Structure formats: C-alpha cells, structure tokens
Amino acid sequence: MAPSRLWLLVPLLSAERCDWSKDAQDTPHLQLVQRQLQLRKSRKVRTWDEARDKAAELVPQLSAPELHQLLRGEHFAVTGEPDAGYYVGNIAGVPRLGLPALKMQDAGQGFRATEPKTGGTTTAFPCMLALASTWDEELVELVAAAIATEFKGKGANVVLGPSINVHRVAAGGRNFEYLSGEDGHLGARLTAAYVKGVQDQGVMAVAKHFAFNEQETKRMLMDAHASERSKWELYYAPFRAAVEAGVGAVMCAYNKVNGTYACHNSEILTNDLRSKMGFHGFVMSDWLAMHSPEALAAGLDQEQPGLINLPFGNKYGILSDKVITGLDRKVKEGAARHILTSVFRLGLDLEPGCAPPNCTKELTSDQTKAITKGQGHGAIAFRAAASAVTLLKNTNSLLPLSKGKVHRIAVVGKACHDAAHASYIGKGSGFVQPDSSARTPFQAIKERASKDEIEVVKPEGDTAAEAAALASSADLVIVVIGADASEGADRSSLDLGLDNDALVRGVTSKAPTVVLLQIPGAAPALRERARERGDLVTDL
User: Fold this and answer.
1) For 341, what's the count of Cα atoms within 13 Å in the CB-facing half-sphere?
2) CA atoms in the 13 A half-sphere facing the CB of 296
C-alpha cells in the first residue's frame, strides 16, 4: 500500500514554544482583546511638527551633562554587572524638564528576559518569521500591541524592533527574527502594521538593522555593496514603510555599506533615510556599532549601549566624558532634537514610569503575568501560531486526524519531549525566557488524541533504532526534529543533521504514514527521500 502523502509547511512558526493552554484558544476572549486594543488607539499624541517645536524649545535648556546623557546609553543589562534594575538599553531622564528615561528591550519573540526572575512572566510569541508567514496585517498589529502592553508592564517604553532585514541568505542565523521574510513588499506591509501596533500603545518602535545586515557571518567586518535599484526596490522597502508609519527610531547596522560603516554612513543615514524617506525620528547604533565620534556628523544620534562598566571601575564607550565634552554643542543639540522629537511625538513624557536602576520591581514583578492572562495574550500567540501554518498537500485526506483513521500514534524525536529545549529557542537578542509550565508537543498531542480515544506512545530513548522499532507498531508516526538558530552565527548547512536524517530514514522505512514536524532555525533542505515518502512537513 502506498504511503499517505501529506504536506504542511510553515517557515519557522517559532524558535520558541507556543502557549497550548485551553484559554489560549478562547476566541471570544480574543475578540474582546481586539476591542480593547482598538480603544487604546484613541490616545492623543502630538504631531511631528508639534513635537519638533517642543524639542527645539527644550534642548537649549539642557545642561552639558543632561545633553550628553541623551546621546549615550548607560549600563548594559546583559554584561553581568552587579547593578539590577537596568534594561538592555538605558537613557537617563531629566526629571526637572519632564524628560522620561528611555528603557529599551529586545522583542524578537516578546519581551527579552535578561534576569532569571523574568522568565515565565511574559508571553513567548511566535517569532517574526512566523508572523510574516501569516500574511495578516491585522494579526501582526495585534501581536505588536500585545508585546508593547507587556513592555509597559515591565517598565520599558522602547521596543527594539521590528527587525525587518530581507532574507537573502537562506542560512541566516537571525532569519527567525526578521518580519520581512524573502519579500520586501510583504515586509513593508507587515512592518507598517507592527509599528502601528506598538506605538498606538504609547511605546516607541525601533526599525532595525539599517541597512543590508542580511547575514551574521562576519557581520562586523563585511562590506555590503548595493546598487540604487536594489536598495530602493528590495532592501529599503520595509524601512520606508516604517518611516511612513511614523516609527520613532531606526537602528543602524554593524556592517559596512559601500565601504563605510552603516552607523558612519551619511549616504544611507542622512541622504537616503532622512532626506529621501522623510524620517523624523532618531538613529541609534546597534550595540557597539559606533566606531568614532565622527558618526554624529554622519547622521547617528545616539550611541548604544554607551558607557559600559568594566572591571576595576573603568568604563568603555566611544562617547567618553572627555570625547563628548570636546564635541561641537550644535552637533550634539541636533542629535538631541531628533531624540526628543520622537519622545514628544509618541507622548513618552506623559507616562515616564520608573527610572533605571530603580526598575527591579517592574522587571521581576508577576504583574505582567497578570496582564498576559487577563488580556488574553496566550490567545493572540496561539492564533498567530495557527495562522502561520500552510497546508501544501493532503493526499487521501489524512488530515484532520480522527479515531476512525488512526488508533495508535507514535511520537518520536528529541524535540517532542521538551517545550523549552535550548536547541529550539532562538538565541541572542531574540531570546525569550521560556515558561517552565509550557507543555511539550508530546503532551499536547496525547491530550488532544485522548478525546478521540487514540493511543499515543513514545520510545524509551531518542535513538533512531528505538524510534524505528516503535514505528512498525503504530498507524501513524509523528517525528519531531529541529535545528538551532542564533544571532552571531549563520547555519553551516540547511540539512537537518545526521542524527535527524537517520531518525527520519529509520522511521519512514517502517511506518506507512509519517508526519515530520520540524523546528528549524532557518529554511530546511527537504531531501528527495522525504518527498517520495509523502512526509507531512510542519515547521514550528
């Protein structure tokens, strides 16, 4: 008998796990959340002109130290320094003038956890690539709004996202973080929705990484050469959409562009971004991407992470006290006006919140968990995950599974037993601290199958031989495999790895029907043997 042929494809639903709890599927609750978020859009904000005028009036009132602290960050929450209560990026406020502190955190899959106590108090949403796979602007806006709400619950007011580089390197280590997928036009549409979702909640969005940071390999050394046509037709499209949506800030990239580092490149920062696109906000550097103070004259406004504490009481930063004091005040005021224009445009001064380092309570509090549960963020994450799935082939109508079609299912593969396994969580800036209560794929499948009295079993161990032995006794086998993805390194291959290949080979030689559930960090290479056996491919 020929094997059932069924294909289901989702490009990286998430390198993180989804919330499979019952309340996550509460559709009426989800509709209520949508109405609540719609109401928040009525919050009043200043126009760009009003914000610019207010910034121009206030900047001359800043003392030299106050002006300097706007242009450079202080502390870095992931350096292991003893001071608690800091975020990934921190800009001190000026209380006497009503200026709030800027508290920045990454958001590749939700609020990035930098303290162990943060884990489990926020939602792990599907990654940006999964959102791109939904082709759903309204849903992307809803997810972004939910993320921004959790940021506010953690005391943060700047989302370091969306990441919108276009996938031009299939093995790119950060592809799971990028909302654009492979298409600049799709990225543009979804970027606008994401920026709106975040900023309608009174939180600033930051479009990154500008520009041409499409790979991780030698990202701080590579020199991207781009023609005018390729820039504007493909790579710039999502950034232009972010600008048109009113994004508050743009982050410049590590790499060089046509011979000059992106954060020092006046051609892309001043000519392309500010003049041609009409950008009104400010430009911050990627972390440690500023190389000299001359970057301020080229279009950079803020150094991140700024001054970092080093051993023995020393500090590191390009804009040291000595260097920044010697710079022309007019140049510094120009950068400060850009920063404060965004602050006033989005009304961040109206909700200042805590000021680092006095944000430990907000960062570690369980109040955000109450927000996520009370406002149905699990339902939003679940809907986004489900919407990213694409059915490509369903020969013999194998799906949906039911008691009449199968009686015994075997679930095999290392990834099926651990919802928060390190190999299946996007690493680096996109990392979200997993919730220890998250259910594994095996647990979720077993619970659902039990409703139809379908038996679900798993092997004692994780070897290919054990999986193959169990496969012969099942009507259907679900193979759950994966590969990691991380900032800082591209995948060495699109193959699934020798262990995974052996597992799939062994199971498909014994089982009449196989479901292959993949959790890859980049586009997987599907070999001919998989297509011949009609595997169901689901990238989660």
Assistant:
1) 23
2) 27
Question: Which residues of the chain does CATH 3.20.20.300 include?
Answer: 52-78+92-365
3-state secondary structure 176-234: HHECCCCCHHHHHHHHHHHHHHHHCCCCEEEEEEECCCCCCCCCCCCEECCCHHHHHHH
484-506: b (≥16 Cβ within 10 Å) or e: bbbbebbbeeeebeeebbebbeb
Question: How many CB atoms are closer than 10 A to CB 271?
Answer: 13
Which tokens hold the place of 514? 């196989």
pLDDT tens digits, 458-517: 998 878 899 999 998 999 998 888 777 777 676 777 776 767 778 888 888 888 888 887
Indicate the Cα dihedral angle 526, 527, 530, 531, nearest 10°.
Answer: 80
Q: What is the rounded CA–CA span in Å between residue 406 and residue 384?
A: 28
Active site residue 539: no
CA 265 to chain centre: 26
Could you report the per-residue pLDDT of 425-435, keeping only the tens digit for each?
677 787 777 66
- Give CA angle at 350 (344, 353), nearest 5°: 115
* Domain 6-22+376-539 CATH superfamily: Glycoside hydrolase family 3 C-terminal domain (3.40.50.1700)
Cβ(535)–Cβ(514) below 8 Å: yes
Handedness of CA 396, 401, 404, 406 (dihedral sign): positive
Annotate 123-153 with b (16+ C-beta within 10 A) or e (fewer).
Answer: bbbbbbbbbbbbebbebbbbbbbbbbbbbbb
Distance from C-alpha of 489 to C-alpha of 521, rounded to nearest angstrom: 11
Residue 32 is given by DSSP the state H
The identity of residue 102, as a single letter, is L
Range list for CATH 3.40.50.1700 in the chain: 6-22+376-539
Residue 461 per-residue DSSP state = S
pTM over 0.85: yes
Q: Report CA-CA distances (Å) from 229 to 24, 236, 412.
A: 44, 10, 48
Q: Which of 184, 179, 280 is nearest to 238 (CA)?
A: 184
| Structure tokens that stand for 232 in this block | 């504007």
What's the longest Cα–Cα distance across the chain? 82
Which tens digit of pLDDT belongs to each residue from 236-264? 999 999 999 999 999 999 999 999 999 99
Question: Can you state the percent helix, strand and coil of the chain, rounding each to 5?
Answer: 40, 15, 45
* CATH architecture classification, 52-78+92-365: Alpha-Beta Barrel (3.20)
Contact partners, residue 178, CB within 8 Å, separation at least 6: 128, 129, 132, 163, 164, 165, 166, 167, 172, 187
For 396: left if phi > 0, alpha if psi spans -120 to 50, otherwise beta; the answer is left
Given 136, 286, 349, 435, which residue is catalytic? Answer: 286
